[in-house]
């Protein structure tokens, strides 16, 4: 199809879908995932109740496939393709330079391998029944903790840079000023996710429950 005949180039649509999928559903799922795991900071029992609620949702596999696995698979594979093709939408914003482009790609790569390992260890090995004690058992290993720290920081940074990229690309942040504001929003999201993720890792590793007093 040719754009000159008034039709949309299909790769434009695939690219738009890739971009959107990073925010919804994948970015939204990452927020939900951090949120539900943050219950670990309240206590074992609360964490296990939230986990059980999620593990017993009707049509679990179908919903997970539609909302998480397929979009994530598409976003990852098309992300590698974009990287391979060397396409960039970022360099046109000179005030950040090229390193955001590089950061976006490398954090995506790290997140990809982290997610594969994370799904294998928390979902496949536990047959979908992970709970506080399985998480705590994993977190007794220094190697696991190190990989979690790297994975959490990579996914959080990727989302933060991605939000900025998305807002600029979709024309939501069109002026230099709004692009700068979008950059600040991206940094804030990246930092908040990083801190929340590290707190959850620390909670599991050290049996740390700073919100334990919430439970009556
Ligand atoms: C933690 C899961 C992930 C989240 C929340 C996420 C989120 C995002 C977001 C919000 C964007 C910005 C969309 C845009 O460019 O307009 C993005 C872009 C990108 N993502 Fe991901 N992503 C994730 C995993 C991955 C993985 C595993 C890869 C594999 C390499 C990847 C590769 C990319 C690439 C290459 C871009 C830049 C696309 C471009 O410049 O047009 N992402 N991601």
Brief sketch in words of this structure:
74% of the residues lie in helices and 0% in strands.
Can you walk me through this structure?
By secondary structure, the protein is mainly α. It has a single domain, classed as 3 helical TM bundles of succinate and fumarate reductases, CATH 1.20.1300. The protein has 7 helices and no strands. The longest helix is centred in the C-terminal third of the chain and has 31 residues.
Name a few traits of the molecule:
single chain; 216 residues; mainly alpha; 3 helical TM bundles of succinate and fumarate reductases; 7 helices; globular; binds protoporphyrin IX containing FE
Topology readout:
Blueprint: H1 10-37, H2 44-55, H3 60-85, H4 99-124, H5 132-139, H6 142-169, H7 176-206
Helix pairs in contact: 1-3, 1-6, 3-4, 4-6, 6-7
Protoporphyrin IX containing FE is lined by residues 19, 22-23, 26-27, 30, 75-76, 79-80, 82-83, 89, 104-105, 108-109, 111-112, 155, 158-159, 162-163, 165-166, 169.
Low-confidence runs of at least 5 consecutive residues? none
Q: How many domain modules?
A: 1
Q: Shape, please?
A: globular
Figure out the total of helices: 7
Query: Quick one: biggest sheet?
Result: none
CATH architectural label: Up-down Bundle
Average pLDDT taken over every residue: 93
Class per helix and strand makeup: mainly alpha
Query: What is the percent of helical residues?
Result: over 70%
Number of E-state strands: 0
What is the end-to-end distance?
64 Å
Ligands and ions found: protoporphyrin IX containing FE
The CATH topology annotation reads as 3 helical TM bundles of succinate and fumarate reductases
Order of helices and strands: HHHHHHH
Strand content: under 5%
């Amino acid at each position: 199809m040719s754009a000159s005949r008034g039709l949309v180039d299909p790769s434009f649509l695939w690219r738009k879908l890739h971009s959107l999928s990073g925010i919804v559903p994948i970015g939204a799922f990452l927020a939900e995932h951090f949120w539900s795991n943050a219950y670990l900071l309240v206590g074992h029992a609360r964490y296990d109740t939230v986990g059980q609620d999620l593990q017993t949702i009707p049509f679990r596999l179908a919903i997970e496939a539609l909302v998480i696995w397929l979009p994530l698979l598409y976003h990852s594979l098309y992300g590698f393709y974009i990287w391979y093709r060397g396409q960039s939408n970022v360099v046109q914003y000179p005030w950040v330079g090229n390193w955001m482009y590089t950061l976006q790609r490398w954090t995506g790569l790290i997140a990809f391998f982290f997610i594969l390992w994370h799904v294998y260890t928390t979902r496949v090995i536990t047959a979908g029944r992970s709970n506080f004690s399985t998480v705590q058992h994993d977190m007794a290993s220094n190697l696991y903790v190190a990989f979690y720290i790297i994975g959490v920081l990579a996914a959080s940074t990727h989302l933060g840079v991605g939000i900025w990229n998305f807002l600029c690309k979709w024309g939501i942040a069109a002026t230099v000023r709004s692009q700068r504001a979008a950059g600040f929003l991206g940094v804030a999201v990246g930092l908040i996710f990083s801190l929340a993720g590290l707190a959850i890792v620390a909670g599991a590793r050290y049996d740390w429950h700073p919100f334990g007093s919430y439970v009556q």
